[in-house]
Amino acid sequence: MKTLTATIGTLLGTLGLLLASGLHAETWRFAVIGDVPYNSYEENQLPLMLDDIAAEHPQFIVHAGDFKSSSKPCSDALFRDRRTLFDASQVPLIYVPGDNEWTDCRRLTAGGFDPLERLQKLRELFFATPRSLGRQALAVEQQPGAYPEQLRWRLGPVLFVSLNVPGSNNNFGHRKTPGPEYRARNPAVIEWLEQGFATARREKAAGLVIVMQANPGFKHAVAGLPHSGYRQLLETLRRETLAFPGQVLLIHGDTHWQRIDKPLRETSGASEHSKDADKQPIANFTRLETFGYPLLGWVKVIVDSENPQLFRFEVHAHRAR
C-alpha cells in the first residue's frame, strides 16, 4: 500500500510539473501582408482577407508597403481610400511606406507627382499620431524628427522596428553618388535600426522584428555585388545581428515572391579573400517576404517562448469569394 501511495504521489508530482511547464509556455500572434491591393479584384478581396485574418485573432497586422500598383495614380483620393480600407480592419494594422506610393510617383503613369510631397501626404494621412490604423488602436513610438513613419512597438518578448526603406534601390538615384533625398534619409534609417538593436539588448528581448518594404538584394550581396542603396543597411544588419543574442526576423515585400529563408551571411562576399566558410547563413537571422500581386495571401507569425527559433510561420493563400 505504501509503495502504491508513493507511486501515485510520484505520478501526481510529474503531472504537476508538466502542467506548470505548460502554463509557462506563452505564444503571441501577428499577421503579415504586403504589395496589396494592386487592382480592382484585390480591392474587393482585401477586406474579406482582413476579416479572415481577424478570425485567427492576431494581436495586429503588418502591411509591408505598396498599397497600389506602380502605374496607378498617387492621388489624394486613392491615399484616402487606402486609409479607410486599413481603418476598417478589426485588429490593429501597422503600415510601412512602399516605393509605389512615394518614390515611384514621379512616373507619368503614376501622375507625375513630386515624391517628397507624396511622402509628406502619407505622413499626414497615416502617421499623424503615434498609433496604428484599424478599429482598435495600438500605441507605437515614432522616431523623433523628420521621419515619423519609422516606428517601434512591442509584442510579448519581441521588439518591432519599422524602416522607411523603399524598393528601386532605396531611392539612391541613377548615378554613382546618391541623391539628396537618400543622403538625408539613410542616416536616420541606420540610426533607428541601431537604436532598435540597442533597445532590444537593453530590454533583454528574445527577438527583434524589422519591417520595411524593399528587398535589399541578399543574393547580390553574397556574390560581392551589393546594391548601392542597401550596402550600409546590410552591413549594419549583419554587424548588429551577430552581436545580438536573440532571434532577428526581417519582413519585407517588393519582389512578390513569398518565402521564408536565411539569406544573411557571415560576410558579404565583397572581398576576394572571403572564404566559403565565412559565407554561412547567420543562424539567428530569418527573412520573411510577403505575398504580392498576382498572388493574394498572408502569413501568420507565431511567437513561441518555448521554441528555440522563437518564430513559427503559417502560410495562408487567400480563397476568393
Walk me through what this model shows.
The chain is an alpha/beta fold and 321 residues long. Helices cover 33% and strands 18% of the residues. It is built from eight helices and twelve strands. It has helices at 2-24, 40-54, 76-87, 115-126, 167-170, 180-202, 218-222, 231-242; strands at 27-33, 61-63, 93-95, 141-142, 151-155, 158-162, 207-211, 247-252, 259-261, 285-289, 297-304, 311-317. Strands 4-5-6-7-8-10-9 form a seven-stranded mixed β-sheet, covered by helices on one side. It has a five-stranded mixed β-sheet with strand order 3-2-1-11-12, with no helix packed on it. Strand 2 (61-63), helix 3 and strand 3 (93-95) form a beta-alpha-beta unit. Helix 3 (76-87) runs parallel beside helix 4 (115-126) and helix 6 runs parallel beside helix 8 (231-242). The protein is globular and about 45 Å long. 39% of the residues are buried. Mean pLDDT is 91; it is low at 1-23.
Briefly characterize the structure.
The protein has 321 residues and is an alpha/beta fold. The protein has eight helices and twelve strands.
Regions with little confidence, pLDDT below 50 for 5+ residues: 1-23
Which range does the strand content fall in? 15-25%
The helix tally amounts to 8
**Structural class of the secondary structure composition?**
alpha/beta
User: What string gives the helices and strands in order?
Assistant: HEHEHEHEEEHHEHHEEEEE
Oligomer: single chain
| Helix content estimate | 25-40%
Number of beta strands: 12
Widest sheet: strand ordering: 4-5-6-7-8-10-9
Largest sheet: 7 strands, mixed
Distance between the termini: 65 Å
User: What value does the average pLDDT take?
Assistant: 91
In angstroms, what is the radius of gyration? 22 Å
Shape: globular
